[in-house]
């Protein structure tokens, strides 16, 4: 999957109707409608910051479907990134595309997420072992290679968090084998997301003009106001969230604030950048804009998955009950 993100198609011809961009956009719209329909009831019942946490599946599922569509629309280009030692490059490109779309539908509708989330994690960890780790060594651990490695690990960890959340809350399994497995998956996912958040937080202070969230090569356009402030705030959220995730304290609150901030930057920063890219005649620019938008949305969904996986504390529940309207006595 990581081979579908920004800068994948630098050699594509300019001034053409982009089947890839159109397919990705269409998939994003369709998955958005499906995910909104599936989450509307939960979102309506949630109160306060819980509304943000309820968007975890939506934010995680939509990008998977978009990248799955990209695997079909740009199969020839993506197949070149399949490791050379593997046969049938085009087959694996389509296979991953089908897997991404299937997982997207499952997570968006919350049907069999214990399996789809777990398998997304396995797929991401396979990418890491086969491509990201060798690439990181080959590039002498440069910051972009490390960022990509941690990105894939956080996506895989989030898939396990989603799976573990379902296993841990299934009726009659919270104290049994499934409950233990669920807690283990959530714990592993939390540590992986913490590692990414901490590294990304440091990178935002080292490179305060980059696009917020996942620190890659692209910088924020000069027409975006307060660029450095946005990056420093993002870095601060990432560092604070990463520490909370690592030590396992106030995870729900930290994940809600961090995930909410990442999703906000996707809308406010990446949204205009994506629209500008889609108006460009170059297919490469269109695809890059879409990839950056949905890549960062996926990371936001990964963080929000931690918020959804961690129940409210007794203190938080007490505050909510105190805020409930009292019955009138007549």
Characterization of the model:
With 330 residues, the chain is mostly helical. Helix content is 74%, strand content 0%. It has one domain. The chain has twelve helices and no strands. The N and C termini lie far apart (63 Å). Residues 2-15 and 323-330 have low confidence and may be disordered.
What would the average pLDDT be, to the nearest integer?
87
Helix content estimate = over 70%
Number of helices: 12
Give the structural class.
mainly alpha
Query: Alpha-carbon distance between the termini?
Result: 63 Å
Please, what is the oligomeric state?
single chain
Low-confidence stretches: 2-15, 323-330
Number of strands: 0
Summarize the structure.
Helices cover 74% and strands 0% of the residues.
Layout of secondary structure:
Elements: H1 19-45, H2 50-53, H3 56-73, H4 75-79, H5 89-109, H6 113-138, H7 143-169, H8 177-206, H9 227-247, H10 251-278, H11 283-309, H12 314-323
List keywords for this structure.
disordered N terminus; mainly alpha; disordered C terminus; 12 helices; 330 residues; 0% strand
């Amino acid at each position: 999957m990581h081979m579908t993100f920004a800068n994948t198609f630098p050699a594509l011809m300019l001034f053409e109707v982009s089947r890839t961009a159109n397919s990705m956009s269409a998939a994003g719209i369709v998955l958005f409608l499906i995910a909104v329909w599936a989450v509307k009831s939960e979102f309506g019942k949630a109160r306060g910051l819980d509304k943000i946490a309820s968007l975890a599946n939506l934010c995680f599922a939509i990008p998977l479907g978009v990248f799955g569509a990209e695997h079909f629309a740009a199969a020839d280009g993506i197949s070149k990134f399949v490791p050379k030692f593997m046969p049938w490059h085009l087959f694996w490109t389509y296979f991953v595309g089908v897997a991404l779309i299937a997982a997207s539908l499952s997570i968006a509708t919350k049907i069999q997420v214990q399996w789809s989330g777990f398998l997304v994690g396995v797929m991401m960890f396979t990418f890491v072992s086969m491509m990201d780790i060798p690439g990181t060594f080959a590039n002498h651990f440069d910051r972009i290679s490390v960022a990509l490695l941690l990105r894939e690990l956080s996506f895989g960890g989030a898939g396990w968090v989603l799976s573990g959340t379902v296993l841990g809350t299934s009726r009659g399994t919270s104290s049994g084998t499934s409950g233990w497995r669920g807690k283990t998956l959530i714990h592993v996912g939390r540590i992986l997301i913490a590692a990414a958040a901490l590294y990304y937080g440091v990178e935002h202070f080292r490179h305060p003009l980059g696009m917020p969230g996942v620190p890659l090569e692209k910088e924020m356009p000069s027409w975006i106001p307060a660029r450095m402030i946005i990056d420093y705030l993002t870095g601060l959220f990432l560092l604070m969230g990463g520490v909370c995730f690592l030590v396992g304290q106030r995870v729900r609150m930290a994940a809600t604030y961090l995930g909410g901030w990442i999703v906000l930057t996707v809308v406010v920063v990446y949204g205009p950048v994506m629209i500008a890219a889609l108006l460009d005649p170059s297919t490469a620019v269109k695809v890059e804009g879409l990839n950056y938008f949905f890549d960062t949305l996926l990371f936001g969904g990964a963080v929000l998955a931690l918020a959804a996986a961690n129940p409210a504390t007794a203190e938080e529940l007490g505050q909510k009950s105190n805020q409930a309207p009292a019955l009138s006595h007549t």
